[in-house]
Amino acid sequence: MKLTLHHVSFSSENVSRLDTFYRDVLQLDAVTQDIPKQEKNKGYAGQLAFRTDGAVQTHIAQKDLTVGFKTGHAVNPVERGHIAYRTDDIEAFKAHLDAQGIPYSDWGHTAAAEWHQVFFYDPDGNVIEVHQAKGD
């Protein structure tokens, strides 16, 4: 089970303003590939923007404090943002979390049709996502 840094996600009340900042100030390009299809009817329909430096993506998501309640998941990835890693074996990674005694929310394909996502907290309460893309 391999992990690679995939994206950093920021939550914002004003996605357009933050997207403009990352485009103009940091000169990050728009992501044109590997963008998950948002499942807007499964609990999160917020505005999204995607930027990249060519290696790692920056995701900007509209903040939604109620997404955990709407989806029934304990971890809300759009409350404060998160860091995300991609794996080639989500089931092995979940077994690894279980063996480590780390509780997680298995979002499956709730938010992204092409990605199986799990979210959990590090010891300081930062949200971490690990996902596997379909076909990986």
Q: What does this 3D model show about the protein?
A:
The chain is an alpha+beta fold and 136 residues long. It has one domain (3-133): 2,3-Dihydroxybiphenyl 1,2-Dioxygenase, domain 1, CATH 3.10.180.10. It contains 3 helices and 8 strands. The protein has helices spanning 15-24, 67-71, 90-100, and strands spanning 3-12, 29-30, 48-52, 57-62, 82-87, 105-108, 115-121, 127-133. A hairpin with a 6-residue loop joins strand 6 (105-108) and strand 7 (115-121). The longest helix has 11 residues, at 90-100. The radius of gyration is 14 Å and the shape is globular. It starts with a strand and ends with a strand. The relative contact order is 0.22. This is VOC domain-containing protein. Residues 4-133 form the VOC domain.
Outline of the structure:
The chain is α+β, with helices and mostly antiparallel strands and 136 residues long.
